[in-house]
Amino acid sequence: MRLTKYFQETKAHIELINEALDVLKDKLPIKNYNELDSLENFALNALIFRFSKLQDLLGSKIFRNYLEFSGFDTSDKSFFDILKEIEKEGIVDIDTWDELRKFRNQIAHEYPLEEDEVIESINLFVQKSKELMAISQKLEEKYLEIKQQRDSDN
């Protein structure tokens, strides 16, 4: 099943996000960006990359497939319609998702020059990563509940 495969992929992204966070844990919250060694910088870049991949996977594949699996007709539905339904399901509200998307775009395309801005962005990124992982896990739990109910009905 597609959703099972997608959730396996989310777990791989989450595992790598957690590994990156583990490498950075002794420096969090970051107070001085210049104190990060090469491994910590590598972990930070991996964190940003995996965050982006996880968010893309959720938004481009899992949300729509989850709704289809739960019985919602997604044909001819815009992403905003999908997001409204995901919000009704109690998975993530539209404002939070929009904030995560904007933050990801900001961190991926803007490179603050002031160290204070860099530090603030990194620390916020760590927080947003945890939010994104929680959304993914909540979605998988809801999927597994529906799947288990269907399996027990058969």
Describe how the helices and strands are arranged.
Layout: H1 2-24, H2 38-69, H3 79-88, H4 94-109, H5 115-153
Apparent shape? elongated
What is the string of helix and strand elements?
HHHHH
Q: Which structural class do the helices and strands define?
A: mainly alpha
**Number of E-state strands:** 0
Report how far the terminal alpha carbons are from each other: 17 Å
Biggest sheet layout:
none
Mean pLDDT: 91
CATH C-level class? Mainly Alpha
Keywords:
mainly alpha, Four Helix Bundle (Hemerythrin (Met), subunit A), 154 residues
Describe it for me?
This protein has 154 residues and is mainly α. It is built from five helices and no strands. Helix 1 (2-24) runs antiparallel to helix 5 (115-153), helix 2 (38-69) packs antiparallel against helix 4 and helix 4 (94-109) packs across helix 5. The longest helix has 39 residues, at 115-153. The protein is elongated. The model has no long low-confidence stretch (mean pLDDT 91).
Compact description:
The protein has about 150 residues and is mainly alpha-helical.
